[in-house]
Amino acid sequence: MIVDAHYHLEVRLETVERILDQMRKHHIDRIALVPTLCDPFHLGAVANSLSGLMRKALSGKWHGFGLFMYNTTVTRSGKFSVLGKTYCIYEKPDNETTAQVMKAHPDKFLGWITVNPKVAPLMPEIEKWVGKPGWVGVKAHPFWHCYPVASLDEVAGYCAGKNLPLLIHLGGNKERGDFRFLPERHPKLKIIYAHAGIPYYRELWEYIKNKENLFVDLSSPYLDEPLRYETLKVLGARKCLYGSDGPYGFPDPADGLYDHGAILNEIMRAPISDNDKELVFNSNFKKIANV
Fold first, then answer.
1. Which residues are 214's β-sheet partners?
2. DSSP letter at 237?
């Protein structure tokens, strides 16, 4: 069984019908959806090269320069920026549309309740969906939505009490990237740090590796194959979840749309046991998300 723990519903880049076709092609059983968060965008060759440079800096000796590059991808006005072109980041996540897709295909799609503390009280939105079929936990994006991790304190306490995981994409400064705050306030909270804990990578791995409830997903062009393998080696398979971060990056040679097999095949090739691959592809997610 294969579960993609992190995929963005963006029908302007990939229709639901194509997602289902790709799931059949690559034997993906379930996908956990995140609502659309941004105007559609494509990363061309130059942008991909710069992304690779940023990744290398963040994971190497030039971490400060990598943080500078990372932070400049979100403008002061709160837009996503690539090579000077900006894309609107949506302040209010559209959980309703995600719910409709989940309802239409309940055996294929799960969902992350996605919130932004800057636009509305968090608890009414979370309580609206918690307990309804398919919702597995809460997703938060302090980086794109530009708020301190501490703003999620109430949500974290609620999730810990309900045994719900929190999927979080960290920012690149002290307040938006404070990966210690929530687990130290709420030791029972299950946290999945998106994209192997970008932008901190090894610093975050060192912090979480002996903490039972803290995990990473292996999604996104924020990682390349060697960095995915290093994450698995340092943390072990029990700490890692397969995710794609589609439909961004990894174009399919056949049609230029998203290739759901790209990251999946990297993990298939990983020098780990079949039992460890089973953990990464489904067992960890099922245990964390109670599905």
1. 191
2. G
